[in-house]
Amino acid sequence: MFYRPEDGHGLPHNPFNAIVSPRPIGWISSRGSEGDNLAPYSFFNAVAYVPPQVMFSSTAAKDSLANIRETRVFAVNIVEFAARDAMNASSAAAARGVDEFALAGVDKAECSTIPCPRVADAPATLECRMTQIVQLPGKANFLVLGEVTGIHMRDDCVVDGRFDVTRFAPLARLGYKDYAVVRELFELARPGEA
Fold it and tell me: Which CATH number characterizes residue 112's domain?
C-alpha cells in the first residue's frame, strides 16, 4: 500500500502514529496564573546531550502551551507502567484552571531549579527552561523546545550507577489506543566499541 497524506489513506484509522512507534510519553507539568497543569504528550523526545535538551509537540493550543508561554518553564515526568491510569486520566479535556494532578490523583512536589510542579513519585523528571516555541505547518501544531536545568531520578531506579528502566517499566505510545511497556533489554555495541 502507498498513499499520499494529502490524498488520505482510505483506512478506518490514520496509520501514521502506529508507523512512528513506540514513542516515549512526556508527562508535561506546568504552572500558570490559572493554576497547575499535567498532561501527557506522545510527540516527545530528547534532542541533544550538551546541554541536555528535549522537545514535545502540542497539536492544539492547550493549557500546557499557554502556561509555558507565560512562565517559560515546564517539567517532563517519565511515565511508568504503574501510573498508566493516572496518566490517562490526566489526558481528559478539562476546563482551563482545572488541576489535573488532583483530577488524576497524582501527588505533586516542587521542582528544584524552576518554579513548577512535578510528579512526586515519577521514576525521573526533567526540569526545563523553554528555549523556543515553533509554530509548525497545520492548524494548531506547536513544537516546544527546552533546556534541561535539573534532573530528578527516583532512588530505586538507580542501580550500580545506571538508571535502570526495568525497575519501573516505562510506558510508550503506539498508534490508535495502543500502548507498550518496556520490561526487557538487550545491548548492542557499535562497531569498534568494546
Answer: 2.30.110.10
Considering the domain boundaries, does residue 190 fall inside one? no
Query: Residue 45 is placed in which grid cell?
Result: 523526545
Residues 63 and 35: their CA atoms lie apart, in Å, by 10
Cα distance between residue 83 and residue 91, in whole Å: 13
Q: Where are the alpha helices (DSSP H) in the chain?
A: 16-19, 63-71, 84-89, 100-104
Domain that holds residue 28: 5-181
Give the sheet arrangement for strand 171-173, strand by strand: 23-24, 171-173, 179-181
Cα 8 → chain centroid: 28
Cell of 174: 503506539
SS3 at position 56: strand
* 193, part of any domain: no
Q: What is the rounded CA–CA span in Å between residue 44 and residue 192?
A: 31
pTM above 0.90, yes or no: yes
Q: Which pLDDT tens digits describe the chain residue by residue (194 residues)?
A: 999 999 999 999 999 999 999 999 999 999 999 999 999 999 999 999 999 999 999 988 789 999 999 999 999 999 999 999 999 999 998 888 899 999 999 999 999 999 999 999 999 999 999 999 999 999 899 999 999 999 999 999 999 999 999 999 999 999 999 999 999 999 999 999 87
Q: Considering its fold, how many domains does the chain have in total?
A: 1
Domain annotation covers residue 192: no
